[in-house]
Amino acid sequence: MSVAALLQDAVFLLLVFILVKPVGIYLKRVFAREHTLLDRLLCPVERAIYRTTRIHPEHEMNAKQYTVAFILFSLVGTLVLYVLLRVQSFLPWFDPAHMTTPMTPDLAINTSISFTTTTTWQAYGGETTMSYLSQLFGLAAQNFLAGAAGLAVGIAFIRGFARQGTTALGNFWADLVRALLWVLLPIALIGSLVLIWQGVPMNFNPYTHATTLQGSVQIIAQGPVAALEFIKNLGTNGGGFFNVNGAHPYENPTPLTNFIEMLAIVILPAALTYTFGLMVGNTRQGWVLFWVMMVLFVGGLAFCSWAELRGNPGLTHALAITGGNMEGKEVRFGIGGSALTAVTTSNGATGSTNSMHDSYTPLGGSVPVMNMLLGEMIFGGLGTGIYSIIMVALVGLFLTGLMIGRTPEYLGKKIEPSEMKLLAIYTLMGPLAVVTFTALAVVTQAGLAGLTTNGGPHGLTEILNAYASSMANNGQTFAGLSANSPFYNITTAITMLLGRFGLAIPALLLAGRFAKQKSRPNTPGKLRTDSLLFATVVIATAVIVVGLTYFAVLALGPIVEQLRMG
């Protein structure tokens, strides 16, 4: 790897580490309703919203009430977006000459679920399917709303561990408003202005028809790109304004914009680890979770970079091609910037990409797939990342408790049979959806029809990636899979719903059970959860559980493909 690429990775990781504490403190102050610099400007707006909607922020909800509010909010958002997409041809800013992909009912419901679950799985090309109005008031709006809802759930989950002897986890509507006003809107505004400065367009101009040097006509799409671009990363959504997403020069024109957009993905989920430590009264607990994330992140980044720099051995030896695997990558980012983005976005539940993962080497492409199979525990989505890693930690505590014959505890809260049942549901939800639908796709004509470019092991990897991406609410795709069909639109939509609500519901219910418990004092016989040993347990649990669950399908996909390539 070049010195520039190594320096880029080092600066990126250093900035993440530096920003975790101040951003984590800010998030804690926002949701604890403590003083911030934005209060004078935003508190009157917040009160006006409460008066208009008749929300009483002081009325807190228990776990079931919080869950119902979260589900109802997402359901309404899905229905509104579905209607907007179905009638977009009758609304302003719809250009029938260039909107060539029909918005069928199955594509509309898939897209609606995709954006309201922060998955932003896209079975369409944005510039040939979505009007400016749909992009701005439909998709970009959901990037804010769905991201804020996820952050609210993450904060409620943390409260379950921070509180004792209560059933209250907060007020969903108040948390949602605070997440929007104090977190997403101001950061997205600043970030969007930076992107405009770097050349990302923000206009409502008609598509430009340009004549090339060869004399042919090229259609250059325009639009309010900057309004969508930054929030899609900040809200861990990832849906691109254009079909090629972050590889398009309008979405991601320079290495600096690429770097900024990757920071936007990671900072809030990473900072929630420190927020967790503050809220439970022990910042060491938060730092342990952060360093577990960081170790796994660096390991994936190193392996993916090595695989892509190594390239295809057959081409290297037979044709003397050197410099690594540049197929499907932008020259302005190179292998270093492409690998950093692939690892960041696959860990951060953000499907934004600046290269085609379908063109990666089998081992390099398997890293984003593995990151998604780990279930958002490495930084993860906005709010979902913090409960994902803690759920893995609780499974590890349960296993270590079995080894020593003691009831496992986390922060003085016991993990008893009722809590373990919720953990089991959470742990089995991913494999149930991913493996089942992958198997269904490879044995049915409707599923195999999507493999229009590749078959064999690589085709299996494309299908596995689709369902892993949907379950992780990530949205990344191997471009060789043609997914705009009733089969894939329906099955990926079901998987996205399971990834959002099938995991959030048991997490919230578990938080509610922990909130009722009284914290027990630590004793020498208990495993310390702020130690290196516990961090090792969490990493080992994640790797072993994912390995035991998915090794068979990984062996038939990227591993076999790598052996055949060698």
Architecture overview:
With 566 residues, the chain is an all-alpha fold. The chain has a domain at 21-207 and 219-281. The protein contains 19 helices and four strands. It has helices at residues 3-31, 39-53, 63-86, 105-116, 126-129, 132-162, 172-197, 225-234, 255-280, 283-310, 313-318, 334-347, 362-373, 384-404, 417-443, 445-448, 456-471, 486-516, 532-565, and strands spanning 208-211, 217-220, 409-410, 413-414. Strands 1-2 form a two-stranded antiparallel sheet. Strands 3-4 form a two-stranded antiparallel ribbon. β1 (208-211) and β2 form a beta hairpin. α3 (63-86) packs antiparallel against α4 (105-116), α7 (172-197) crosses α8 (225-234) and α10 runs antiparallel to α13 (362-373). The relative contact order is 0.12. The mean pLDDT is 90.
Layout of strands and helices, then pairs:
Blueprint lengths: L2 H29 L7 H15 L9 H24 L18 H12 L9 H4 L2 H31 L9 H26 L10 E4 L5 E4 L4 H10 L20 H26 L2 H28 L2 H6 L15 H14 L14 H12 L10 H21 L4 E2 L2 E2 L2 H27 L1 H4 L7 H16 L14 H31 L15 H34 L1
Antiparallel strand pairs: 1-2, 3-4
Helix pairs in contact: 1-9, 1-12, 2-7, 3-4, 3-6, 3-18, 4-18, 6-7, 6-8, 6-9, 6-14, 6-18, 7-8, 8-9, 9-10, 9-12, 10-12, 10-13, 10-19, 12-13, 13-17, 13-19, 14-15, 14-19, 15-17, 15-18, 17-18, 17-19
Could you give a quick summary of the protein structure above?
It is built from 19 helices and 4 strands. It has 566 residues and is mainly α.
